[in-house]
TrEMBL record:
Name assigned to this protein: L-lysine 2,3-aminomutase
Record keywords, A-Z: 4Fe-4S, Iron, Iron-sulfur, Isomerase, Metal-binding, Pyridoxal phosphate, S-adenosyl-L-methionine
Sequence similarity: Belongs to the radical SAM superfamily. KamA family.
Cofactor list: [4Fe-4S] cluster; pyridoxal 5'-phosphate
InterPro entries, A to Z: Aldolase_TIM, EpmB, Lys_aminomutase/Glu_NH3_mut, rSAM, rSAM_sf
Organism of provenance: Marinospirillum alkalitolerans
Gene expressing this chain: epmB
Domain Radical SAM core: 105-328
Domain of life: Bacteria
PANTHER family, A to Z: L-LYSINE 2,3-AMINOMUTASE, LYSINE 2,3-AMINOMUTASE-RELATED
Keyword Iron: yes
């Protein structure tokens, strides 16, 4: 079956048409609706973190395959209802580093800003899947408070806009934030952590490129791509437009069971990223968030896989294997030999 492309639609229209119903997903992928429904949990189509996947992402899935690595990232499996010990709602304890609504100040020289709680798709392993976004979307007055905070902390030279996905916001809103942050003299870099262009490549359009080109700060986009199948020609073309606008492109992945837990898959991902002008940056161990335990690998599996990956790639294409720990002043790189326990 050839899936009809939505590439000609504006990204907002594509977002509106995102799939939220299991039946619809089954039809698009020529899957047996009953077989699909049998795998998912009862709240899969309701609540704040229900099934959500744009057609552009579905177009990269293999029809007829329940084990497709892109499908498995978005499918609310019944396994999410298991609650093994150590899997908690806020594994990084971010709410303890939240001095103002929308601002997380955990690392010395950089802060994280959440300007929206919305995402283009819902990744089932997301460590912020329980984050209280409704309390963390700064409005006008809070924007001033954030600027005051940044002015009072000259050691902060980088602001990271992160998930929810900052590119869910309208371009006018993003342009206002860029101008606000550009006005703080000691901010050198603005970094956007985004999966939106992966979900809907047409998010990189002329309106976005306009504010990208207008900022005085160095701009870095950290994409989130987990599997080479996510990188299609449509996405690569848009990434080239970003590069032409002067944006540095990095990628981070999460190591996920049955999705990218193979050195060959990860090596192919690094090669394809580099071909597209994107540097592999981090390979994250799964954060132990409630509902995501079925994506975890054992320490032995991780060690074996990373050792194989080191032998497959030149060093500059090997993403750093890291774990985030709430009490640490940075991400924790896992050296070699390392302990993943
Ligand atoms: S796009 Fe990012 S923030 Fe949003 S659900 Fe996926 S991993 Fe989480």
């Amino acid at each position: 079956m050839i899936l009809k492309s939505h590439a000609s639609l504006h990204w907002r229209e594509q977002l509106k048409q995102a799939i939220t119903q299991v039946d619809q997903l089954a039809e698009r992928l020529t899957l047996d609706p009953q077989a699909l429904a049998a795998q998912i949990h009862p709240q899969a189509q309701a609540g704040h973190f229900a099934l959500k996947v744009p057609q552009a992402f579905v177009e990269r899935m293999q029809p007829g395959r329940l084990d497709d690595p892109l499908l498995l990232q978005v499918l609310p499996l019944s396994a999410e209802l298991e609650t093994p010990e150590g899997y908690v709602p806020d594994p990084l304890q971010e709410q303890a580093f939240n001095p103002l609504p929308g601002l997380i100040h955990k690392y010395r020289s950089r802060v994280l800003l959440t300007i929206t709680g919305a995402c283009a798709l819902h990744c089932r392993y997301c460590f912020r899947r329980h984050f209280p976004y409704s309390d963390n979307q700064p409005g006008g007055q809070q924007r001033e408070a954030i600027v005051d905070y940044l002015q009072a902390h000259p050691e902060i030279n980088e602001v990271i806009l992160s998930g929810g996905d900052p590119l869910s916001s309208p371009d006018a809103h993003l342009a206002r934030w860029m101008a606000t942050l550009d006005a703080v003299p000691h901010i050198k870099r603005l970094r956007l952590h985004t999966r939106f262009p992966v979900a809907i490549p047409e998010r990189i359009d002329d309106d976005l490129l306009a504010w990208v080109k207008s900022t005085r700060s160095q701009l870095v986009f950290v994409l989130h791509i987990n599997h080479p199948q996510e990188l299609d020609a449509r996405l690569i073309e848009r990434l080239q437009a970003l590069r032409a606008a002067g944006v540095t492109l990095l990628n981070q992945s999460v190591l996920l069971k049955d999705i990218n837990d193979s050195a060959l898959v990860l090596a192919e991902l690094s090669e394809r990223l580099f071909d597209a002008g994107v540097l592999p940056y981090y390979l994250h161990l799964l954060d132990r968030v409630q509902g995501a335990a079925h994506f975890a690998l054992s320490p032995t599996e991780i060690e074996t896989l990373y050792q194989q990956l080191l032998s497959c790639l030149p060093g500059f294409l090997v993403p750093k294997l890291v774990r985030e720990q709430p009490e640490q002043p940075s991400k924790t790189p896992l050296g070699w030999p390392f302990s993943t326990r």
